[in-house]
Amino acid sequence: MAVGDDAAAVPWPILTPSVDLVKDGATEINRSRDFAAQVKALVPVGKPGFRAAAGITSGTAAPTGGSDGDIYFQIVP
Question: CA triplet 67, 46, 76: central angle to 5 degrees?
Fold first, then answer.
């Protein structure tokens, strides 16, 4: 994967060394943007994403399994 591809996928602006004034630093700036884009991709999106990332599941069935001390909540209609 070329330097700057992850940043372009987010989409964040990419520097072009032949055009932009920051010719020598363009590659390093794009690398830092790639890193930021990769970290951003790890963050869950929306309530379902946050719940899944935290290992939280929900349902109306009676709880099964677990260990001593676990707390279960059941939604009663």
Answer: 50
